[in-house]
């Protein structure tokens, strides 16, 4: 499967997407999904700006147009940004525990391994993905915020897979040390450190 290449320079620019089947879509780029590469365009219909999602796989070429983004659409994009939904001051530095810092690094590595670009950490130690999704400490699935439903769901799915992997690893490593020839290992009672004789 071809991995999408996300061009951050297209954000808030007007583009024309030439797609398969001779279909053409144009509008201002609100975001490009960091995982799927799908485009979210806003164009004016009957005086109202409405979003259109164009799948990455359908796009054959992208043309950047010269139109300046209208002020009302620029303001709309600002209100959709996860940064604007935070109640904390932008220059307020929050300290996090070493355990959370470790999880933050694991998540950043996860995004890098999945070729997700545009990932930053702000002064509040929130992970911002492509200016579309915000993950607040303690960085769980429930800590993901964003008004771009498509990108939000993709990020939540990735975090969910990470949490499931951690649970499996913890289960495999879990077990009490056998003391005096008897103990519990992986939920089974062991006698003399040899065979499993009964379930706990």
TrEMBL record:
**A GO CC term assigned to this protein in UniProt:** SMN complex
Indicate the transmembrane segments per the record.
Answer: none
Domain called AD: residue spans: 71-167
BP GO terms, sorted? spliceosomal complex assembly; spliceosomal snRNP assembly
Q: Check the record and name the PANTHER family matching this protein.
A: GEM-ASSOCIATED PROTEIN 6
Q: What is this protein called?
A: AD domain-containing protein
């Amino acid at each position: 499967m071809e991995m999408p290449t996300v061009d951050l320079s297209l954000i808030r620019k007007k583009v024309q997407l030439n797609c398969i089947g001779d279909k053409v879509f144009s509008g201002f780029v609100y975001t490009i999904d960091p995982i799927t590469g799908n485009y979210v365009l806003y164009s004016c219909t009957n005086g109202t700006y409405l979003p259109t999602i164009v799948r990455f796989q359908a796009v054959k070429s992208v043309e950047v147009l010269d139109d300046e983004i209208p002020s009302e659409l620029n303001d709309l994009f600002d209100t959709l940004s996860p940064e604007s939904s935070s109640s904390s001051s932008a220059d307020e530095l929050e300290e996090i525990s070493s355990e959370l810092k470790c999880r933050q690094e694991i998540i950043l590595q996860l995004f890098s391994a999945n070729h997700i670009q545009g990932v930053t950490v702000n002064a509040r130690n929130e992970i911002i993905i492509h200016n579309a999704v915000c993950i607040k400490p303690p960085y769980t699935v429930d800590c993901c915020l964003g008004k771009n439903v498509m990108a939000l769901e993709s990020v939540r799915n990735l975090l969910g897979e990470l949490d499931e992997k951690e649970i499996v690893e913890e289960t495999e490593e879990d077990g009490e040390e056998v003391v005096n020839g008897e103990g519990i290992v992986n939920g089974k009672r062991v006698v003399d450190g040899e065979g499993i004789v009964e379930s706990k």
